[in-house]
Amino acid sequence: MDSTRLLADVGGTNARFAWQAAAGAPLQDVRTLPCAGHDSLEAAMRAYLAETAHPVPALAAVGIANPVTGDRVQMTNHHWSFSIEALRQALGFERLRVINDFTALALALPQLSAHELRQVGGGPAQPGAPIGLVGAGTGLGVSGLLPVGSRWLPLAGEGGHVSLAAETPLEAEVVAVLRERYGRVSAERALSGPGLRALHHALGRVQGQRETPEDAPEAAAIVEAAQSGGDTRCTQVLDLFCGWLGAVAGDLALTLGARGGVFIGGGIVPRLGAAFERSPFRARFEAKGRFASYLREIPVQLIVSTTSPALRGAAEALEMPDGA
């Protein structure tokens, strides 16, 4: 039986693809295609197959950055929209599995090697305990793994859209500006690439600057300026970002009882280098009042893999029955 498979990890900015000859085989021909360069996921898939000269495989699995609650998928941070069954028929797959991208990443966590991780505080992970996952990129992804007997159950939620809580006077002022702009302020409004720009504008408003949101630098420029130490506002923005990310990750650890560790994915934090370890992240992760000692023992693992682990998680999803 043909068990070749096309794997995809689709975010709001880039779609990453890989080919797998069979279950458990190494990933081959990993490619990254910009979402903006293709009219649809189908078009991007066809472009990948043409570029790599692979035939249409029997199986395909996609981790995609939005809820997957039925046949119709509409991306939250990009315009792609499609029917899963129509896409399967159009490409000719025997089976197509579509899951949330952070659910796919969660499925990959047990497969990660030591060289793909960097621990940021905490002690050893407790074997068999729940695991948390959060990561900032074009949006904010949240998932986790719960132990069920001898296997792991991945979570398919939208925790990136919980309300953003202010814990300092400055954060309260920044949230007030964000609320004026957005109405409701979710964690993703601050903890994402667009969120870095929103924080830059909001902080400027708090400091009396007369700027529009469009005047804010791109996220990559904010990070670069903060790392170079030449721009005070960008440094403050990065501190706000890392502090809030720590608070959200700590809340997730408490919610799941994630004594197996909290993993940090996404495209932003791995680029921060040593600046992340010097940031308020870990202090805010642990700053939970009476439960500070509980959180102090929980390890945080930064995912630094050069190849998208969510592709491995998508492959793992093909070994699970639909609906699991």
Automatic annotation (TrEMBL):
Q: Which CDD domains match?
A: ASKHA_NBD_GLK
Classify the source by domain of life. Bacteria
Checking Pfam families in the record gives: Glucokinase
Q: Give the enzyme's main class according to its UniProt record, as a single word.
A: transferase
E.C. code: 2.7.1.2
Question: A Gene Ontology MF term for this entry?
Answer: D-glucose binding
Q: Name one GO biological process term.
A: glycolytic process
Reaction it catalyzes:
D-glucose + ATP = D-glucose 6-phosphate + ADP + H(+)
Check the record and name the PANTHER family matching this protein: GLUCOKINASE
What protein is this chain from? Glucokinase
